Amino acid sequence: QVQLVESGGGLVQPGGSLRLSCAASGISFSFYTMGWYRQAPGKQRELVAVIRPGGNTNYADSVKGRFTISKDNAKNTVYLQMRSLKPEDTANYYCNAALGGSANWGQGTQVTVSS
Question: What does DSSP assign to residue 87?
Fold first, then answer.
C-alpha cells in the first residue's frame, strides 16, 4: 500500500523559510517522479516542483529561485525547501509520486504565510 506522509508545514512570517518533507512507503521510490503541488482556497491545485528519478527538476515560475526540491533515495523522502516566503504561497501542500500512468497523493500539509 502506497503511503505519502507530508510534514513541516506551519505558520511563518513573510520572508521566512520552511522545509517540507514527504516520507514515502510502498513504492520503489528511486523510480518515481516526485512532486510538490499546492492548493489555495478557491483555487485549483497547481504544480510547485518536481524531481525526476535522474535528479532533473522543474519549478513553477512563481517559486523559481526561492524553492528547492530535493530527495534522499536512501530515506525514501522528498523535500521542499522554501525561502523568502510570500503571503501568496499560503496553501495546502501535497506530495505526489508518479510512475507511468499512476499517481499517488499525500494528505497535505498546510503552509500559512502571514504577519
Answer: G
Q: Is 29 helix (H, G, I), strand (E, B) or coil?
A: helix
- Which residues partner with 43 through β-bridges? none
Cβ atoms within 10 Å of 12's Cβ, excluding its own: 18
CA separation for the pair 35, 82 (Å, rounded) = 14
- What cell was used for 90? 499560503
The residue whose grid cell reads 509520486 is 97
Q: Are 113 and 87 in contact (CB under 8 A)?
A: yes
d(CA 20, CA 106): 12
Q: Give average pLDDT by consecutive 10-residue segment, the chain, 115 residues.
A: 96 98 96 98 97 97 98 98 98 97 95 97
d(CA 60, CA 53): 19
DSSP structure class, residue 108: -
| 3-state SS, residue 31 | helix
